[in-house]
Amino acid sequence: MPYVTTLGAAFREIVAQHAEHPALRYPETGERVSYAELNHLADRVAAAIHAQGLRPGEVAVFFHDKSPVAYAAMLACLRLGVIYVNLDPDSPWERLHRILATCRPRLVVNAFTVLPFAAELAAEGHDIVLHLHALPDAGIAPADAHFSGSHPAYIMFTSGSTGMPKGAVMSHANLLGFIAWAQNRFAITPDDVLTNVNPIYFDNSVFDFYTAIFSGAALVPATAEQVRDTRRLVRLVNEAGCTIWFSVPSLLVYLLTTRALVATDFPAMRKIVFGGEGFSKRKLRQLHELFGERAALENVYGPTECTCICSAHTVGVADFDDMQALAPLGLLAENFDYEILPQDDADPDFGELFLRGPQVGLGYYNDPERTARAFVQNPRHEHYADIGYRTGDLVQRDTKGWLHFRGRADYQIKHMGYRIELEEIEAAFNSLPAVKECAVVYQTLGEGLGQILAFVAAHAAVAPADLLKQVAAIVPVYMVPRRVTLIDPLPKNANGKIDRPALHGVVGLS
């Protein structure tokens, strides 16, 4: 690819080289969208967004399905310099309200026929002025806007420990660096066909969309209904001839557990990529026995704040010598550097991972305090500005230089691939009138699975089911605890703080 400074220019180059090549493939309907057609659709959306008066640096919020026009809308924003935000239309309105208050969009874009909270949006002045399912003819598309690679491309909202979701901002330069690394690390070419089983508002979808569309490859979107039906999903991947898969491990575990995958499936697959949570060694070995001789299994790692993923490890037979430990994170991308911030002086190879490099994002949108806490000067020196990201992930470096995940320095967890701050769930419970105090813990169940449990001290008699129902109106479904246990008072340690180890002992948590 010729040297480019923005993603809009990069996509123009891809279209020029691969105009008639399929960009999107929908096997169940037989629909194929070429790069030329996707570019034309992006021109139409860009014209419609520009007609609403949006200019570089302003924010547009999308409620997307996985239709061609949804992908075109992201490309349109990249051309215009408009910062896009993909949101989950099934999230509770209270959480969406907090996100909208943070990013302050100039435009709300809807790809669905009906949104359940359209009235609430309108009441707060967020009128939906652009419906992608009925895209208006807005005339000639504007020329690509002029801005540098440091310009923001998108905001990805993740769980926040204060109860307020935080929006990680990624620049065009961040993504161009990520694309270049991923193309090289996974040998992605225009001949590849990539899955998009990840929700479009989920961090893992960055890998799907950007590595496919900016490599001239084909992308195969899978709807939520298709993903839930395991055999239908496997059939979709088989019929499309997908060569690269990316998902959270729990989806692969689900396919294996339901026996939806057999050795004759994934006939064209050459890379099975997974990340975002731990992968049970027993299930990973089962996957390796099915496909390991013809497809590389890639365990990947990377925070949202560092452009999706930044390290990969190819799983081999030696990884099953120890069936207890997780697969290594492997080596970081060549354009990354890191420091291990020791927890004490005993072991300099164990501590919090501090990442540095061109894929480290711009910070959190409209949130200078949390940005200042996480995006900090390299603690090794003060000679010049050298900003990196404190991941909060505890790692161990082995004699090969490989990194191994050893837990968190805080109460953040990965559940179903989602990064969740347990404090956000606690904040939701503590906002309820009946709750005096709350503690939320995570119980591991084996096979890479787990469940969220809440312990509540209440002001008055209240049913746990009622508390769960009220919390479900505040946080997304994947953050709602499996159950609530009423305990009054909650156990405290000598410092007067909630004694979480004691709570783990209440129900024998691991």
Major β-sheet, in short?
Answer: 5 strands, mixed
The first-level CATH class of the largest domain is given as: Alpha Beta
CATH-defined architecture of the largest domain: 3-Layer(aba) Sandwich
Distance between the termini: 49 Å
- Whole-number tally of structural domains: 4
Mean pLDDT: 90
Total beta-strand segments: 26
- How would the global form be characterised? globular
Name the CATH homologous superfamily of the largest domain. ANL, N-terminal domain
Structural class: alpha/beta
Structure description:
By secondary structure, the chain is of the alpha/beta class. It has four domains: 2-6 and 34-173, Rossmann fold (3-Layer(aba) Sandwich), CATH 3.40.50.12780; 186-333, ANL, N-terminal domain (Rossmann fold), CATH 3.40.50; 336-408, Luciferase, domain 3 (Roll); 421-506, GMP Synthetase, Chain A, domain 3 (2-Layer Sandwich). The protein contains 15 helices and 26 strands. The strands form eight sheets. A five-stranded mixed beta sheet has the order 11-12-13-14-15, with helices on one face. Strands 16, 17, 19, 20 and 21 form a five-stranded antiparallel beta sheet that branches. Strands 4-3-5-6 form a four-stranded parallel beta sheet, sandwiched between helices. Strand 20 and strand 21 (403-408) form a beta hairpin. Helix 1 packs across helix 3. The longest helix has 17 residues, at 35-51. It is globular and about 70 Å long.
